[in-house]
C-alpha cells in the first residue's frame, strides 16, 4: 500500500510567553489513520495540539501539513488547508443557538455552499437537526460535543484533532463519541489525531501513537506495541 504522510512534525518546541512546554517533538501522522497522543496530566498534550493549530508559541522546529510548511500559518490559514481542531473546552458559543453557532462556523461560505455543507453535516449528525433552535447553554455535555463537532466538520477538514473529546462524559456517551470518531475515519476517510485520557481506548482505536511526558516524546510507533509496553504504561500512566 502507498502510505502518504499527512502531518509531519520536526523537532518542534513550543509553549507560552517565554516558557517552553513541549521540547523537540518529532512525529508524523499518515493519511487515513487514527493517531493517538497520550500522556499524564500536564505533559503538554493540549499545548501540542494548540501549537499544531497555531495557538501556542512556536520557538523552533517545523510543521508540514498536506504537502505545505505551515509552521507559522495563523489558525484560519491552517483551517483553509484542511486542518480541524476541537479544543478541550470552550468550543461552542453558549449565548447563541445551535443554528447561530453553525452559521458563525460557516461564515466564509456562500449561501448555496453553506446549505450544502449543513446538509452533509446533518446527514452525519442527524441529532443536530432537533437541537437547531436550542441555546447552546442548555445542551448536555454530549450534545455540546456533537455541536462542536458539527461546527468543525462544516469546514470540511482533511484531518481532525480532538482534545479529550470524552472528558466529563458518562461512559455510554463516551462510547458514542468514540463510535462517531471511528465512523468519521472509516466511512468519511478523515485522518484523526486524538488526545485522550482514556489511554486504553485511545490505543485500541489508533493505528499509531505518541506518548508525551513532560513535553518530550517517550514513545512513537505502533499503538498495539505501546498498549503492550507494560513498563512504559505503568511508569508514566500508572496502568
Ligand atoms: N496558557 C498557558 N500559559 C502558560 N502555561 C500554560 C498554559 N496552558 C497550559 N500551560 C502549562 O503547560 C503545561 C502543559 O499543559 P497542557 O494543558 O498542555 O497539558 P495536558 O497534557 O493537556 O494536560 P491534561 O491531561 O490535564 O489536559 C502545564 O504545566 C500547564 O500549566
Ligand atoms: Mg489537555
Which architecture name of one domain does CATH use?
A: 3-Layer(aba) Sandwich
Major pleated sheet: 6 strands, mixed
CATH superfamily of one domain: P-loop containing nucleotide triphosphate hydrolases
Per DSSP, the total helix count is: 10
What is the overall shape?
Answer: globular
Stretches where pLDDT is under 50 for at least 5 consecutive residues are none
Major beta sheet, strand line-up: 6-7-8-3-9-10
User: What value does the average pLDDT take?
Assistant: 94
Computed Rg = 18 Å
Class from secondary-structure proportions: alpha/beta
Protein name: ABC transporter domain-containing protein
Family: Belongs to the ABC transporter superfamily.
GO molecular function: ATP binding; ATP hydrolysis activity; branched-chain amino acid transmembrane transporter activity
Keywords: Amino-acid transport, ATP-binding, Nucleotide-binding, Transport
Amino acid at each position: 500500500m502507498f502510505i502518504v504522510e499527512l502531518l509531519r512534525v520536526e523537532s518542534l518546541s513550543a509553549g507560552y510567553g517565554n516558557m517552553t512546554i513541549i521540547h523537540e517533538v518529532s512525529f508524523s501522522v499518515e493519511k487515513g489513520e487514527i493517531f493517538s497522543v497520550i500522556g499524564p496530566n500536564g505533559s503538554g498534550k493540549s499545548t501540542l495540539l494548540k501549537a499544531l493549530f497555531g495557538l501556542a508559541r512556536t520557538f523552533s522546529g517545523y510543521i508540514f501539513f498536506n504537502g505545505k510548511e505551515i509552521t507559522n500559518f495563523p489558525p484560519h490559514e491552517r483551517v483553509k488547508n484542511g486542518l480541524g481542531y476541537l479544543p478541550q473546552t470552550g468550543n461552542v458559543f453558549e449565548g447563541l443557538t445551535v443554528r447561530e453557532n453553525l452559521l458563525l462556523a460557516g461564515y466564509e461560505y456562500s449561501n448555496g455552499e453553506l446549505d450544502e455543507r449543513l446538509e452533509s453535516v446533518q446527514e452525519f449528525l442527524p441529532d443536530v437537526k432537533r437541537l437547531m433552535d436550542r441555546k447552546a447553554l442548555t445542551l448536555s455535555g454530549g450534545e455540546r460535543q456533537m455541536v462542536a463537532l458539527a461546527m468543525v466538520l462544516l469546514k470540511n477538514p482533511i484531518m481532525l484533532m480532538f482534545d479529550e473529546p470524552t472528558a466529563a462524559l458518562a461512559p455510554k456517551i463516551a462510547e458514542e463519541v468514540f463510535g462517531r470518531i471511528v465512523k468519521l475515519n472509516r466511512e468519511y476517510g478523515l485522518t484523526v489525531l486524538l488526545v485522550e485520557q482514556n489511554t486504553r481506548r485511545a490505543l485500541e482505536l489508533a493505528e499509531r501513537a505518541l506518548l508525551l511526558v513532560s513535553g518530550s516524546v517517550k514513545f512513537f510507533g505502533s499503538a498495539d506495541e505501546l498498549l503492550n509496553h507494560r513498563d512504559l504504561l505503568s511508569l508514566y500512566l500508572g496502568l
